[in-house]
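Q: Could you fold this chain for me?
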Amino acid sequence: MSPLIRVESAEDLGPQFVNNPDGMVGLDGAYSIPLRYGGALWYFGDTLIGRRTAGESLWYPGGVQIAAYDMSGHHGIDLLRTNTGAMVPTQDASRGIRQWSHIIDGDGDIRQLVPHLESEDRDEYRVWCLHGIQVDGVIHLYYMVVHMLDSGPMPVNFEIVGCGLAQGAPSGWSFLRIPARDGILWWPASQPQFGSAVIDGRDGFLYVYGVRRDDAGVQRACVARVRPQSLTDHGAYEYLEHGPAKWSPRVEDAIAVMTGMPNEMSVSWNAHLGCWLAVHSLDLSGAIVGRTAPKPWGPWSEPVTLWQVTPPSRDYPVPYGSLIYAGKEHPELSPDGRTLFLTYVEFEEYFPHLVMIRLE
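A: Sure. Below is the predicted structure, expressed as structure tokens.
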């Protein structure tokens, strides 16, 4: 049986990355990828550059729902980068992330890491961050391509096109999208979107987690494995299927190992608990939960609430319910595994919050 998680204390350290010299006024995602020489690359999703208008919603300026094209030069947002990065050196994060810097391009602007293709119109398609890992000095970034919709129930609406893998080096931060056997995207929308988390399983394999929504609307996570030397070979991935640690070369055989997460999560080895720890938002409930397992593929425990987000009050009307998402852990910030550092995003505020958890 996996050990039960018990929280001794918890504190929300507030929104991070707010004060910067680059005109960045909001971002989400906030994956962290430990680097071989220390510190971590933090990998973000949509990154807004410009200004906010006080007293009105970021997503409903003047009370009108913003359209996808309005994020590029309208309503105070001069620029939209759909995925960006920051260098975060090793530090004591108990008072928040104090040392960090955006990755900048040759013009001095915040750099988009994984590029668009020429066929992907920037007003119609976005390239969002998933997780990544460094292998033999090369950084590998999983990403998701989405098609933006003009209308829908959410303040920003989209449909998933698929996800893939890019690679690059920290020397120039130039990433290339690696094609699969039958196209640039490795897993289309009908399949799990692998790259939600990737870990070194300490057994000669890397394990990659992918989420998909089933016909009943339930988000389910599957797991694949691959040898590190074959990470960029789409055909080398194996998928956990029914049976005790039975693996199949067919993604169609992949089974769910846990449920209830959006497209983002984290998995890490926790020395304090002596097992694997998965952290994710529980749907859009505002709960950030943890699960434990003896192996990277499970069996995973039921979720335990690590932190419950209280939606903030607004001085202006917001025509949608509070959206809490992107829950995940950043194990490289933890000194011992007993102290956890988690992030989540509240959509209207649109900055990652850092939460410090102390386990019993």
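A (continued): The chain is about 0% helix and 45% strand.
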